[in-house]
Amino acid sequence: MKRFLAACVLGLAAQGAWASDDDILKVRAGGDVAATMDALEAAVTGAGATVFARVDHAAGAANVDMELAPSELLIFGNPKLGTTAMQDNPLAGLYLPLKVLVYEDAQGQVWLAYEDPEESLDDLPGINEGAGYIAKMQGALGNLTAKAADG
């Protein structure tokens, strides 16, 4: 699994698209928030995963007369992977389904951001660091965000 992670990191770093703050992975996007989110949603459904919700944080802010830079959250998953994790420990449901935030920073750069599933799940009793579904989740998040970043 370490080789898989290293390959993902090197691949994204070679594109100049990878950055990390603690357990949050970020991918630089070329388009605006709406177009990047549309591309992410298309990639997710194209991969056969289920989209559960798309949350427009900026629209929510506008509804209470507040301003927020463009920011949208996609909540999605594959029940075959998530169920297996929750069978190992029901508390995995606190971290599942998967989520990706697409947002514009103060400099106008758009990013896709998500929490590394290994970091959120492997501390739960019953879930092994080397659980196959964790690597699959990491791979899916890396592939989907890379596709969306390229637009």
From TrEMBL:
Residues 55-117 form the DUF302 domain. InterPro entries: DUF302 (IPR005180), TT1751-like_sf (IPR035923). CDD domains: DUF302. It comes from the Bacteria. The keyword Magnesium does not apply. Residues 1-19 form the signal peptide. It holds the Pfam family DUF302. Keywords: Signal. The keyword Cell inner membrane does not apply. PANTHER family: INNER MEMBRANE OR EXPORTED (PTHR38342:SF2), SLR5037 PROTEIN (PTHR38342). This is DUF302 domain-containing protein. It comes from Roseovarius gahaiensis. The lineage of its organism: Bacteria, Pseudomonadati, Pseudomonadota, Alphaproteobacteria, Rhodobacterales.
